[in-house]
Amino acid sequence: MVRAYFPLLLLFGFVALNAGLILAIGALTVRSRPTPVKSQPYESGIAPLGDARERFSVKFYMVAMLFIIFDIETVFMIPWGVAFRQLSCAVALTPAGCPAGQVSFFGLSEMLVFIGILLVGFAYVWKKGALQWD
Amino acid sequence: MIAEALFFSAILFTIGVVGVLTRRNALIIFMCVELMLNAVNLSFVALSKMHGAALGQVFVVFVMTVAAAEAAVGLAIVIAVYRHFGTVELQNINLLRG
Amino acid sequence: MPLDLSVPASLVTALLPDLIVMGGAMALLLWGVWRPEGASGRPVGVGAIGVCLAALAAIAGMAVQGITAGPGPIAIDNFRWATDAVILVGTILSIALADDYGRRAEPVAVESHALTLLAASGMMLLAGARDLILVFLGIEVMSVAVYVLAGINRRSARSAEAALKYFLLGAFSTAFLLYGVALVYGATGATNLTAIGSALAASPPGPGSMAVIGLALMLVGFAFKVAAAPFHMWTPDVYDGAPTPFTAFMAAAVKAAAFASFARVFMEGFGPVFVRWHSVLWWLAALTMVLGNLIALSQRNLKRMLAYSSIAHAGYLLVALVTNTTEGAAAMVFYLFAYTLATVGAFAVVMALAEGAERPQDVREWSGLFSVRPLLAIAMAVFMLALLGFPLAGGMGFFAKWYLLQAALKAPAPQTRLAVLLVITSVISAGYYLYVIMVMFMRPRPADAAPFPDTPAWTRSVIVGAAVLLLALGLYPSPIVRWARSSSLQPTTATGVPSTPEALRITAR
């Protein structure tokens, strides 16, 4: 049981060793000559626009909340996709697939209803102007 | 393995309960509630494996979705409270008392 | 012929009333946002009430046809239809109040009607849910919508605070409930109540510790939702701060749905382990009745007083649950109907007499109300007497308590002491219900008192309708009770079959 985790322990050890080695080499070989530009926070190479602790517009929260709601619905689509072949067959699937004449639209219509409900929410949010930035 | 998972989820749930009862910041309390929900999810997955059936995992999917909806509504309420009170510390939010 | 719920088409039939409400809510949401700018919200309110009436018609049709269902995730019995009817009546009354509230004092978005309907659909799901997944979904659909409704008055800090408190404690209690569900699933391998019942009945030495802990956690979750002491702390604050129409909605419909699900889960699912939860619920009921009534005595803020009164009524309803019988379940639904009419009516009067939404109202401001607003004073007196359970003038309220007592005394395990406590605490409750009446009728109106605002048309109809219905059904209540009793919850017993009194008597020992 515990033995199964030994490779993981090995990995942790290796990571720690590697990190320590890199830091040690840096500390030993680099001469420190700080300038104001060098000590600025790194923002992907663009000159920083100010303090990171400024207040964020509430619009960000709005987008984040909408994202959470619409994003999580995928969680239902993945199991649905996995079971789709069986869902679109009225009888149990055979290794050869669905027997002729037994194709059902149950699975498809279920998902269409689901997406339809999501679309109602989306249409509401859109018309309400929550997706507009300005 | 399942016993460990259940034990772990019980500990997580307890941490969440203690957090809700001792903290005074609305956001942190909310995070503790989320921790409790995820502890339950862990239990469901472990018990689902114990029974060898997918039912518990189906439950987890529903819990996750509902938790997301609840999070959105909860954050909206927290923002509304912040607009009125300028804080989310519960000891400063006390207009209602008998 | 019972519906086979494993066939999708029959499942749609079984869920028809719920689907009508859900679909109506979504249509209203789109209609509300696509209306021209500045248009009146009233058509949306009318539409929302229309959706509720359509659902009521569907329920009546299905109840008359006598449709039944085989085992499955949704129950089709008169208990469900009766609870649905209570929920929908409460919803209709709250929507009417919300519409007036929106035009008079504070701007409330027309989305509130769609949210009310969504909450109602969750409640209706809860009333019929025979699977713990559906119980969880129903509770959450209901709660998430009601969190928003509590805070829908965006100009009011009190409303926002109420929403925050309701949300945090509601989510906390949901987590307890859910952990309980997980452990019960672990112990029985099922989420279907029938399957849980037979699994619990089949385990020879009694339930294991996992099932018992799960049961306890679910009990805590439900106790929070129905506001039973000692899990009632959120109720007065939330009821006080929320906009009054939605306070009425919470006090009436939310409580009805939570109690219906509480009863179904515990009687159908956990009936075989009745001995394990009986005494806990007994103490919960006793504590809730005593605490709710005693604290209500000291309240002078009307909404807080009604909040504690609703806690006290949760205690009375728990007595019905402790009986664990079909009669108890039927008495509970009848009580919920009377309670819904009286509570919504009382909150409607509070709303009618408040000039703004913000300020809490003191009972003493109503001094001499009878001399200036006789109709409102009389209606309020009817609601107070109904909540008290006064014969005749209290209409249905008296019979509600009467059937509750009957169910408690005639149960296989008779709850004599609880029944006595119920009567005693009801007498205590006269202290605050009659105080309101005394203030309205016997105190003189001070000369410098500010005049009361005019009552809007819909609010007036709600008040008159609720009072008339209470009195009329109080004249001849027996058909409703007989109907509710005829096909109701069947508590499962240790042998796994629907109970006979003899079997239950053995279990209760």
Oligomeric state of the chains present here: heterotrimer
Pair of chains with the largest interface and how many residues each contributes: B-C, 43 and 40 residues
Strand count of chain C: 0
Run of helices and strands of chain C: HHHHHHHHHHHHHHHHHHHHH
Note down, in words, how this protein is organized:
The complex is a heterotrimer of chains A (134), B (98) and C (509). Helix content of chain A is 56%, strand content 0%. Chain A contains five helices and no strands. Chain A has helices spanning 6-29, 58-72, 74-82, 84-87, 106-128. Chain A is flat, with a radius of gyration of 27 Å. With 98 residues, chain B is mainly alpha-helical. Chain B has a single domain (2-92), classed as Orthogonal Bundle (Helix Hairpins). Chain B contains three helices and no strands. Chain B has helices spanning 2-22, 26-51, 55-85. Chain C is mainly alpha-helical and 509 residues long. Chain C is built from 21 helices and no strands. Chains B and C meet through helix 1, helix 2 and helix 3 of B and helix 6, helix 7 and helix 10 of C.
Considering the chains and any ligands shown, give keywords for the structure:
heterotrimer; B: 98 residues; mainly alpha; Helix Hairpins; 3 helices; 0% strand; elongated; C: 509 residues; 21 helices; disordered C terminus
Please specify the SSE layout and strand pairing.
The complex is a heterotrimer of chains A (134), B (98) and C (509).
Chain A: H1 6-29, H2 58-72, H3 74-82, H4 84-87, H5 106-128
Chain B: H1 2-22, H2 26-51, H3 55-85
Helix pairs in contact in B: 1-2, 2-3
Chain C: H1 8-14, H2 16-34, H3 42-65, H4 78-104, H5 111-128, H6 132-150, H7 157-188, H8 193-202, H9 209-226, H10 234-241, H11 244-269, H12 274-297, H13 302-323, H14 326-353, H15 369-372, H16 374-388, H17 396-410, H18 416-442, H19 457-475, H20 478-486, H21 501-508
Helix pairs in contact in C: 2-3, 2-5, 3-4, 4-5, 4-11, 4-14, 4-19, 5-6, 5-11, 6-7, 6-11, 7-9, 7-10, 9-11, 9-12, 10-11, 10-13, 11-13, 11-14, 12-13, 12-18, 13-14, 13-17, 13-18, 14-16, 14-17, 14-19, 14-20, 16-18, 16-19, 17-19
